[in-house]
Design a protein that fits this description.
It contains no helices and 18 strands. By secondary structure, the protein is mainly beta. Strand 3 and strand 4 form a beta hairpin.
Length: 203
Amino acid sequence: GAGKFSASLGAISSSTCSECIAGKFSPGASAMCLPCNCVAGLYCPQNHSSSSGILCPMGFYCVGGAADKQMCPLGTFSAIIGSGICSDCVEGKYSTMAGAVGCTKCQSGKFSASRGASSESTCIKCPANTFSPASGAASIATCASCEVGKSAVPGSIVGDTVHSLCAEEKICEYGVTGPFEFLFSDSFTAYHVLACISSHIML
């Protein structure tokens, strides 16, 4: 049958027929399989009956000819069918698995200037006293500086209650050094003082 071949003369049973391997085809009633001649983006799967091949699936790339489909390597992806190449994950993203159909964004508070990254470790925390609310940041330039009188730990996100913020309207007099801890209110518009050394005036 189509996609199979048999080198046995005078065979009377289909059990003598073998399937063509990937990259080869048989239109039927053949003594051998022939190499496919696919264009880029197509391939011949096992037991195929045509030299033209079929579309390469997502997560793979197909160089054409008689070559089988290949999984996209780490740090790359293919989100379309019929692709002859895999694309690198752009800056701010990474892919930790072969055959990916997309890339994962770096978390908010981090950035990555690496292209084709294959590990989350390429996502670097924004420095202390900066923050970044956006995911998939591609540059340290996305890490915005805190306002004067405010601070943030490395990898901070705007609106995150883990921030340690010195609210400008809450300053202790007489040279108090702190540290002072502040949290966002429910409305995220005001700040509450959690600690201030006693006997000192709070403005």
